[in-house]
Amino acid sequence: MEITANTIKKYMKNKYLLTAIFEEVRIVRVLITGGKGQLGIELKYLLENYYEVYAWDLEELDITQREKTINEIRSLDPDLVINCAAYTDVDGCEENADLAYKINAYGARNIAVACQEIGSIMVHISTDFVFDGNNDNPYIESDQANPLNIYGKSKLIGEEFVSNLLDKYFIIRTAWLYGAHGDNFIHTMLRLANKKDLLTVVDDQIGSPTYTKDLALVIKKLIATKLYGLYHASNNGQCSWYEFAKKIFEYTNTNVKVKPVTSKEFIRTATRPAYSVLKNYSLEENLNYKMRDWQEALKDYLNSKNEGDRYEN
Ligand SMILES: NC(=O)C1=CN([C@@H]2O[C@H](COP(=O)(O)OP(=O)(O)OC[C@H]3O[C@@H](n4cnc5c(N)ncnc54)[C@H](O)[C@@H]3O)[C@@H](O)[C@H]2O)C=CC1
């Protein structure tokens, strides 16, 4: 079909036909739920350069409200919904299990039902905590999930709802997120280093710290394809929380003593997997895309002065 101004005019009112004739504008309107969380804000800044982006959080759309969620998504009629909304307080999930399932499992389901109805693509963000940590090699997408805590269980059920209800979905498991927006482990460490001479940090939980900027770039790449399915996406390499803290202090020239402790010495409400390193197998196989090492990403994060220049290259 020849694409002329008249063709565009003719199909202007029907964006599905319009997007069908332009493969590259398959996605025009994007809704981000949980749009004021650390990943949601990052994605908004990146994607609004390319798409018409709506970033909704609790005030605009509580994803646990089934009817409202379906109605609001139906009336916005996005081509893509990225679900970043979650109950991410891992210990809080143990204490408020009902709420955890309501948000992380059924909230995801409500969005998937709406996407199914309007034929929209869904990106659903999930977690390394779906694994039990008994591996000693990085987990790939086909490894058996077996969550140890309510957070992981509720997120896994959310994944299952999405993959059972939809054909056009990307489920993206990530880990140990930090970014320019919201509180994170790096802030906590630097804050504590200002107040104390000695910090104790857990050394027997191994994972992959992941910069939200890098994850947002992966999501942008994936949504430009039709390679739907389950993906792991975390910065390359692995460390313990203790090693992560040591690197933060090394890169910021912060002088503080850090003592490694075991999870048994640092009791938390929720049990965490001892080893939850993700291998980005599908990303590397399907897109030939390798995420950079976590140390490099951490340096970049610590060096980035303002948000304006964060996506220039
Ligand atoms: N933070 C981390 O270390 C990790 C996060 N993830 C996943 O990545 C995704 C993004 O996480 P973050 O941005 O770090 O989380 P965040 O906690 O910074 O943001 C979550 C957002 O969801 C919103 N929200 C909570 N309940 C809601 C509801 N009922 N309706 C609508 N919005 C609601 C919150 O207001 C918040 O703005 C989540 O799916 C999380 O499970 C995965 C692995 C690690």
From TrEMBL:
GO MF annotation terms: dTDP-4-dehydrorhamnose reductase activity
Keyword Phosphoprotein annotated: no
Entry annotated with the keyword Oxidoreductase: yes
Pathway: Carbohydrate biosynthesis; dTDP-L-rhamnose biosynthesis
SUPFAM superfamilies: NAD(P)-binding Rossmann-fold domains (SSF51735)
GO biological process: dTDP-rhamnose biosynthetic process
EC nos: 1.1.1.133
Keyword vocabulary terms for this entry: NADP, Oxidoreductase
CDD domains: dTDP_HR_like_SDR_e
Entry-linked Pfam families: RmlD_sub_bind (PF04321)
Any Gene Ontology CC annotation: cytosol
Start and end residues of each RmlD-like substrate binding domain: 29-304
PANTHER family, alphabetized: DTDP-4-DEHYDRORHAMNOSE REDUCTASE, METHIONINE ADENOSYLTRANSFERASE 2 SUBUNIT BETA
Family listed: Belongs to the dTDP-4-dehydrorhamnose reductase family.
Purpose: Catalyzes the reduction of dTDP-6-deoxy-L-lyxo-4-hexulose to yield dTDP-L-rhamnose.
NCBIfam families documented for this protein: rmlD
Protein name: dTDP-4-dehydrorhamnose reductase
Organism: Orenia marismortui
